[in-house]
Design brief:
globular, Four Helix Bundle (Hemerythrin (Met), subunit A), 10 helices, 2 domains, mainly alpha
Length: 245
Amino acid sequence: MNINPHEMTQLAAAQPVSRLDMYAGIHKALRALMADTLLAVGRMDTGDDLELATTTQRVCELLDLCASHLAHENRFVHTALEARAPGSSDVMAHEHEEHAQHIASLGGLAGTLLKSPLPERAGLAMELYRQLALFIAGNFQHMHVEETAHNAVLWSRYTDAELADIHGALVASIPPQELMYTLRWMVPFMNPAERQAMMGEMQAHAPAPAFAAAMDTVRPHLSDAEWAKLTRGLGLAAAPGLVEA
């Protein structure tokens, strides 16, 4: 059964908004990181060797996270979709293959730019900027379909408890360094309720040192008002930079 994602979008609109959404947090992180990285490439001084190295490294970090995200979705989310709605992930799985090819191409372009002589840098930087913009544009559309069509399938065939188990297994598979990098881009760009729910879950179940490290990771990227709301909601001292675990 091959489910048309555009038809499933209509079904998603009829679903209650309170259902567990495995895509919401990570997609906010990816959108924020993609936009920030694109802006960095666009404003990069290609005559500054350090800035060139730093910016191309940021591109590679984005591409690494995107590749890892594809793998996580294929392994956990697409497996769940296919288990109860065969064919429902076919369209997005094909797009994942295209994204993997684009990731490899962008990585090669970033590497070429980094090693290029000064006279060639401006042209290569513009090409990287444009290709990255196209990659991001495609991903924004792709994520929308996942959040609507795929969620509609998941919500119609799984309970929230089952979805929580799937999501928990996915998160548990992520190496600590990648998890902290993801939290840095996820938590600051959530709304306060989402932020408190995520960090509250971590506070309740993660080891105290891991929770403290996560709070320290996100603190520099929150305003004082946002930090105060978060720490108050978690029952922690609101002093900037201090976390009572």
